[in-house]
């Protein structure tokens, strides 16, 4: 028995170390992906979609507060990839760690469910996990750039806004996908695989065309998003929104399609407006559809239970009505 207890005690620290390294690796991988698309705002380079914030918040929601060290380690690896460490790097580490941690704590306070099956959960993710919590990282990062002299004070708000929106989009577009992938359990039953394949084919053809055509066809993506939400709910809608956002970000980075001949500020505003609309539409629409589905199932179960109760009552009344006549008949037969 002592050996078993000792093995369990040793396994727990090892598991924590492995979780920390896994979170750091995922954070670093998300950072490398985010650095593939960069926009220049007031001379500062920012990412319009920063996936590590979504990865960090999703890991906190799944593994708990103990994985904060992995977020800090992942941030450190990204900073080492970008530049040499300076005293101001400690502030960036603190801000990038505190933002998802505060978002996680705020979500826990309101009873957040990671399956995003309720409208209130999606609203909490939008306004607490993304818009509010990411103020910490953007304010810290832009403030340090001004404090160290790397950014003029007059350009603070432009860089701050781009930083904040990029971090918020990472939460809105990446965190739901990570939560969905971590909740998948085999075996997977594809009852609508033909329709899913059709949606994938159409999305794969239409979205690149809409994001790279100079005819401003971005609006044509929304019917696909609605189709995905109606038929496949959160899984389909968030994947469709993420794909459309990535394609739009790449088009904006290459200055092609609807982003051609636009200034840096105009590119950022148009891209972030599109990404934000896609993220909000996918989350809120899928949550409303899921809630309606659950309500319909609850009503159906209640109706079925009511039918069963009525059948039992009817059977009981019939048995009670037959009992005196049966006894009378048996009495006459005995005479």
Largest sheet: 2 strands, antiparallel
Number of helices: 10
SSE series: HEEHHHHHHHHH
> How large, in whole angstroms, is the Cα Rg?
27 Å
Unreliable runs: 1-11, 331-335
Helix percentage: over 70%
- Oligomer classification: single chain
Q: How would you classify the helix and strand content by structural class? A: mainly alpha
Tally of extended strands? 2
Strands ordered across the widest β-sheet: 1-2
Mean pLDDT: 83
Q: Note the gap between the termini.
A: 77 Å
Proportion of beta-strand residues: under 5%
Write up this protein.
- With 335 residues, the chain is an all-alpha fold.
- The chain has helices spanning 2-34, 51-63, 68-82, 89-109, 119-132, 134-147, 156-183, 193-212, 221-254, 264-334, and strands at residues 39-41, 44-46.
- A two-stranded antiparallel ribbon has the order 1-2.
- Helix 1 runs antiparallel to helix 2.
- The chain starts with a helix and ends with a helix.
- The relative contact order is 0.10.
Give the topology, please.
Layout: H1 2-34, E1 39-41, E2 44-46, H2 51-63, H3 68-82, H4 89-109, H5 119-132, H6 134-147, H7 156-183, H8 193-212, H9 221-254, H10 264-334
Antiparallel strand pairs: 1-2
Helix pairs in contact: 1-2, 1-3, 2-4, 2-7, 3-4, 4-5, 4-6, 5-7, 5-10, 6-7, 7-9, 7-10, 8-9, 9-10
């Amino acid at each position: 028995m002592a050996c078993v207890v000792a093995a369990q005690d040793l396994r727990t620290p090892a598991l924590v170390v492995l979780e920390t390294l896994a979170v750091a690796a995922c954070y670093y991988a998300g950072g490398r992906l985010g650095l593939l698309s960069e926009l220049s705002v007031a001379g500062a380079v920012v990412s319009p979609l920063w996936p590590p914030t979504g990865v960090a918040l999703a890991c906190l929601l799944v593994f708990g507060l103990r994985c904060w060290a992995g977020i800090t380690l992942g941030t450190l690896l990204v900073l080492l990839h970008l530049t040499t460490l300076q005293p101001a790097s400690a502030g960036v580490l603190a801000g990038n760690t505190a933002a998802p941690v505060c978002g996680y704590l705020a979500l826990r306070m309101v009873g957040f469910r990671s399956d995003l099956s309720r409208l209130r959960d999606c609203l909490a993710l939008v306004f607490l996990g993304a818009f509010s919590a990411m103020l910490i990282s953007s304010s810290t990062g832009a403030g340090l750039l001004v404090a160290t002299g790397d950014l003029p004070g007059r350009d603070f708000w432009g860089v701050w806004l781009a930083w904040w929106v990029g971090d918020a989009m990472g939460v809105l577009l990446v965190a739901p996908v990570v939560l969905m992938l971590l909740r998948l359990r085999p075996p997977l039953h594809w009852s609508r695989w033909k329709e899913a394949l059709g949606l994938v084919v159409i999305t794969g053809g239409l979205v690149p065309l809409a994001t790279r055509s100079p005819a401003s066809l971005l609006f044509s993506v929304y019917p696909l998003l609605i189709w995905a939400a109606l038929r496949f709910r959160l899984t389909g809608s968030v994947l469709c929104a993420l794909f459309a956002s990535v394609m739009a970000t790449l088009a904006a980075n290459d200055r092609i399609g609807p982003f051609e001949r636009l200034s840096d500020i105009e590119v950022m505003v148009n891209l972030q407006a599109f990404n934000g609309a896609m993220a909000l539409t996918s989350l809120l629409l899928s949550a409303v559809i899921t809630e309606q589905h659950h309500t319909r199932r609850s009503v159906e179960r209640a109706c079925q239970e009511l039918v069963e109760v009525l059948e039992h009552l009817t059977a009981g009344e019939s048995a009670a009505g037959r009992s005196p006549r049966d006894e009378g008949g048996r009495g006459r037969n005995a005479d």
